[in-house]
Each structure stands twice: as C-alpha cells, then as structure tokens.
Design goal:
Jelly Rolls, 17 helices, globular, disordered N terminus
Length: 585
C-alpha cells in the first residue's frame, strides 16, 4: 500500500468535457477507495486484539480486512501505469529509470523512515525506563523481529523479503514488496503496452493461474506477508493492475461500466461475498472490477464516493496504514505493564471504547503525518535528490492539497533564476520540459513564439481602464481580457489579464518561455504539470507560480466559472502549445 501515488482528483470522463492531451488524466474515486481500504485494514487489526468484540458473529467482512492489501496492490499497478505510461511506453532510458525510482523513494521513504524511528525510539525509551527502575534492561536483539538486523533491512526497504524476522512496523512489509514491483515496472511495462489483445488475455489467464496456485498452497488464505508467498501475492496483483489499466485505456465497455448499475452491482456482490466469508480467491477478482467501475462512473454514485470526507481519508491513507500499528504497539506495551489489564479478557463495552479511541488516535496522527511528514518530507527529499526547481503554490487553504510539481527548466534564454521561488511553499519534481519534437510552436492572437525586443520602460504612470479593454476568446472558449502588455503600456516588462473559464473548460497543454503567475479571483479549478503526479487546487485566496518552459494546464471544477488574474513575466503573451489548439467555439 505504501507506494501509492499522490491523490488524484475528479477528472472529466465520458461526460463530454474537454480532456487536455499530453497530461496524465486525473482519475476520480481512486483516492476514496484507498482511504476506505486503509480504514478496513485498521479495523481488522484492532478487532483482532480485542476478541470480546467477536465481529465474526455479525459479518465476515471485518476479519477479511487483510484483503484490502490485495486491492492496494492492484490499485498501485493501475495508478503507476496511468502516471508513467508516457515515459515508458516506447523505451526505457537510464535517466527515466533513475527519475522514476527517485520519485518512488521520495513518495514512500519519508513516512516509512519516520515510522521506523518512532518504533526504535519507543523501544529505546522503554529500555531506558526499565534500566532506571530495575537497574537492567533487555538489549535490542541482533536478529529477529524488532532487531538491529531488521532495522538495517528496513533502511534499505528489504524487510518484506522475510518480514517475520525483519519487521519493526508490521504493515511495512507491503511497501517493501511494492518497491520490488517498482524496480520491475519500467522493464515490464513496454512489453505489456505493446502486446496484442491475445497476449494480454493470455497474461491475464496466467495471473489467475498464479493466484489460484497461491490459494491452493495456502488453503485459500491470502493473508501472506512473509517470504515467497508474500512476493507471489504482490507481483501478480500489481501486474493485474497494469493489465487493468490497459483495458481501461482501450475503452472496452466504457459506456456500460460508467453506469450506476455497474458500480452498484459490483459493490453489492463484493459486500455480499465479504459478509458471507466467501473464499479469498472469489473475492480478489472483484477488486479490479470495483476499481474500473468506480473510475468510469459518471452517475449519481460518483459525487458521494468523492465526497470531501472520503477524499480526506484517502489523502491520509498511507499515514493511516503505516502509523496505526504504532498506535497499537504503544497501547499494548502500556497495557502489558499495567497489572490486571489483559485485552484478551476485556469485556465488550470497554473493548469497543478502546477500539474507537485507537481509531480516533490513528486518524489524528495520520492527519498530522500527512501534512508534516509526507508532504514536507517528500518535498525535502525531492530537492535533495536533485529533481529540480520548485513551484510556488500560495494559499493556506490549498497548500495541503497541492501536489503540483515543477522540474528544472532548460538553460535557455527564457529560463528563470532560482531566486524568487519560495522553498517553503513548493514541491519539487523531476525535470520535464517540452522538447522540439513534442511542442509545435503556434502563433496565437497576442504574440509570436519568439522573444520580443525589449522597449524602454515608460517614466510616467501608465493607467489602463478595464472598461476600455476588449475581451477575446481563447482556444477552448474561455473569455480573456488583456489588461497590461502587448498594445498597452509599451515597455512594461509584464503582461496581465483576466480570464473567465466556464464549467467544463480545460486549457490545452502549453508552456511559456517565462514564468507565469495565476491568482484565483472566483470559482474553483485544478492545475497540474505535464508528467507529474497530483494537482494543485485553485480557489479564491490561492496564487500559483508556474516556471518557464514547463508544459502545464488547468481545468474548471464545479458548476461555477473560474476567474483568474494572470501575470506573464514578459511584455507579450507567448504560448507554445503541445498540439495546435482547436478554433474558439
């Protein structure tokens, strides 16, 4: 579960809204599904430690919570393929492979190492207290669970190979094996992507056979988290996610899968099998169907599934998954030292109260971790791994949601200096700028694609009355009112304008040879950079700074127009479109 990409937000699907080409499509419902699955794992683990609850008397779903990890593996294969398909579809270069691994390390390592250090610090403090009270303590073992050897294995993400002997934080076995899948992904993806339908169908059959063999060898008990069986659990399911995305991309049965009936049928069938305690092998194949119908859905089920509480739960899901075990560890260690307190003998009411308190504590800790460990740690590590230049996303309301990245601009005449970008409000990423083969420079109505000659700055006040300025139509249909620049205020080194974008509007992917700043006046939207994970939320009180030569786009979210005040750090507006835009209207 640990290697999940940053949250993906609602995206235009088969509802007729424009899709920007050249950027990863932003998929709905994946973040909420991840949050629900993480909470399912938490409830499973907590109920296991309080047997008086006896959830199996009422439903088989709780003690099937380990299957959420199987959904994580499928989901990870699906999302990683979605995000990186453009970079690896044709060929794999050493640079792309390194950048991919850097991005994965920056995503999963800060929280993993923080959780590991929390366990080590707690174990050390426990021994210090024991020494202070009794004059002796039990040393941390060299080998085995929560040992020095396990600590070293966790540092290099190898704990999943033999989790029974190498674990400190038990759920971290899955991120170790997922990282193994990441190592293989760039090598396997080009082969899978170029394969024909028959080959893909054959691969799907082989994956089912592999999972069937695992079910046979384990007595249909997929809660395998140690050794070879854990690897055979992770890799086929990750590959199944990659294969699932290929089916999604093909559009097969898209109109049927987009209906509420399809999503409802899959959800009801899955809930029924879980409730009845059906065989694991009968349940796992429904996870790909659930993912596909949830992503495709354009009906009435999509808004509640993507409601703010579930999106928030998905945002913190990685922290919730890794840190709930620390909450349980601390609680059980304290209880072990209190005379007469045995969780196994605790009555029902206190057990339910403790489970509720543990869930609340885990959610609170996960929320703090998401903000101060995941986001901050990822930003810091990306900068240290030389991913390039940051993007400024200003506005407290949206900073926690911002996942937009900026890479290093090429050293051309249009590149901006590192000064002026605020590291505190930025997330760095790998370098990605439009190449000559990718970008066809298209002359738009406000200037050529070449750098203009600078005119002297006027030495008097320049006053422009908005009522005197015309409004023009941009590609895609947005209304744009240029204020300063081009034919007003000759010699001013900037260009400004107000853009009003109607619901459903999305900009064509494009870049500028200079920095651009967007301030939101009204409405809501999402901005992103080509080839990068996540989006930055656009809403009143937010300013987004986009660097020179980075392909970017934004779209309107909701039913109200998005009004932005844009500043181009050049006297003329220069737009390099990835593809020639359609004519207005």
């Amino acid at each position: 579960m640990g290697g999940r990409v940053a949250s993906e937000r609602e995206r235009a699907g088969d509802d007729g809204r424009q899709r920007p080409s050249g950027s990863p499509e932003l998929l709905a419902s994946l973040t909420p599904l991840r949050g629900i699955a993480a909470l399912w794992v938490v409830i499973f683990h907590f109920c296991w430690y309080f047997p008086a609850v006896h959830p199996e008397r009422y439903t088989g779903a709780v003690y099937k919570g380990y299957l959420a990890v199987d959904m994580f593996f499928v989901l990870s294969g699906f999302v990683i393929t979605h995000v990186y398909k453009e970079g690896f579809a044709q060929r794999v270069t050493g640079r792309r492979y390194r950048d991919f691994l850097k991005a994965r390390v920056a995503r999963i390592y800060p929280l993993h190492i923080t959780a590991l250090l929390l366990f080590v610090a707690t174990a050390t403090a426990e021994r210090a207290v024991s020494y202070a009270l009794r004059g002796s303590f039990e040393p941390i073992p060299l080998l085995g669970e929560r040992s020095l050897g396990g600590f070293l294995a966790n540092l290099v993400m190898l704990q999943g190979l033999w989790a029974r002997e190498l674990s400190w934080n038990d759920p971290a076995w899955s991120i170790s094996l997922e990282f193994l899948a990441y190592l293989l992904f760039p090598l396997l993806f080009p082969v899978l992507w170029r394969a024909g339908p028959a080959a893909k169908a054959g691969l799907g059959g082989l994956l089912l056979v592999a999972l069937g063999w695992l079910a046979y060898r384990t007595g249909d008990y997929f809660n395998q988290w140690n050794g070879t069986y854990a690897i055979l659990r992770c890799l086929p399911e990750f590959l199944a996610g990659m294969l699932l995305y290929s089916g999604y991309q093909s559009g097969t049965l898209a109109s049927v899968l987009a209906t509420d009936a399809a999503l409802g049928a899959v959800a009801v069938l899955l809930a029924a099998l879980l409730h009845l305690g059906a065989p694991d092998l009968a349940i796992i194949p429904l996870f790909p169907l659930l993912i596909l119908t949830a992503v495709r859905n354009t009906g009435r089920l999509s808004p509640p599934l993507n409601s703010p509480p579930l999106v928030w739960l998905g945002d913190i899901s990685y922290s919730l998954y890794l840190l709930h075990w620390f909450v349980l560890f601390v609680t059980t260690e304290i209880a072990r030292r209190l005379p007469g307190l045995d969780f196994a003998k605790l009555p029902l009411a206190p057990s339910l109260a403790l489970i509720t308190a543990l869930i609340a504590a885990s959610l609170a800790l996960a929320a703090l971790s998401f903000r101060f460990v995941e986001v901050t740690g990822r930003r810091w590590l990306r900068q240290r791994l030389d991913f390039g230049r940051p993007v400024a996303v200003v506005g407290a309301a949206s900073t926690r949601r911002a996942a937009a990245r900026i890479g290093r601009a090429p050293s051309t005449a249009g590149a901006t200096s590192r000064r002026g970008w605020s590291p505190r409000m930025a997330t760095s990423s790998r370098s990605r700028s439009p190449s000559d083969s990718q970008v066809r420079q298209n002359r738009d109505s406000f200037g050529s694609s070449r750098w203009p000659r600078r005119e002297p700055m006027p030495d008097a006040l320049t006053v422009i009355r908005h009522a005197d300025r015309p409004t023009v139509t941009l590609p895609g249909g947005a209304a744009y009112q240029p204020i300063i620049g081009d034919d007003t205020g000759e010699g001013l080194p900037i260009r400004t304008g107000i853009q009003t974008s109607q619901p459903g509007y999305a900009t064509p992917p494009h870049s500028h040879p200079y920095a651009e700043i967007l301030t939101v006046i009204e409405g809501r939207g999402e901005a992103w950079l080509d080839g990068e994970e996540g989006v930055a939320m656009m809403e009143p009180g937010v300013t987004i700074a986009v660097p020179a030569n980075r392909v970017h786009a934004f779209r309107v979210v909701g039913d109200h127009p998005l009004v932005t005040f844009g500043v181009h750090t050049n006297g003329k507006r220069i737009v390099n479109y990835v593809s020639p835009p359609q004519s207005p209207g």
